[in-house]
Amino acid sequence: MDDDAVVVKKVKDVTEAQIVCGLLRANGIECGYRDTEEIDSALEDFTQAGAQEILVHSADLEVARELLDSAVDPA
Fold first, then answer.
1. CA–CA separation, 21 and 8 (whole Å)
2. Mind spelling out the 3-state secondary structure of the chain?
3. How far apart are CA 52 and CA 75, in angstroms?
4. Where are the domains of the chain?
5. What gap in Å lies between CA 57 and CA 44, rounded to an integer?
6. pLDDT of residue 37
7. Nearest alpha-carbon partner for 7 in 29, 33, 30, 25
8. What is d(CA 66, CA 38) in angstroms, rounded to the nearest whole number?
9. Does domain 5-68 have CATH number 3.30.70?
10. pTM (two decimals)
11. Beta carbons within 8 Å of 50's beta carbon, 6+ residues apart
């Protein structure tokens, strides 16, 4: 991601981040993920462990939020 990346969602781990990014990418939204600033694992400095932030381009933020909201609550 480049300088216009913004956080759209925080998830609990890398696996969930990969799933969320897969959903976004399947709908044409470029995304990435990174460790949060929170320290929540003894392995934090060695592996991608713990909470992750999902990043999208700022221009895609609203569409990404709507997509993720509808995926969580399809009603």
1. 11
2. CCCCEEEEEEECCHHHHHHHHHHHHHCCCCEEEEECCCCCCCCCCCCCCCCEEEEEEHHHHHHHHHHHHHHHCCC
3. 27
4. 5-68
5. 26
6. 76
7. 33
8. 26
9. yes
10. 0.79
11. 12, 13, 35, 36, 38, 39, 40, 41, 44
Q: How far apart are CA 2 and CA 60, in angstroms?
A: 13
Amino acid letter for position 7: V
Higher confidence at residue 42 or residue 65? 65
pLDDT digits (tens, 9 = 90+) for 33-64: 999 876 555 555 555 568 999 999 999 999 99
The pLDDT assigned to 16 comes to 95
* Among candidate residues 36, 31, 38, the one with its CA nearest the CA of residue 5: 31
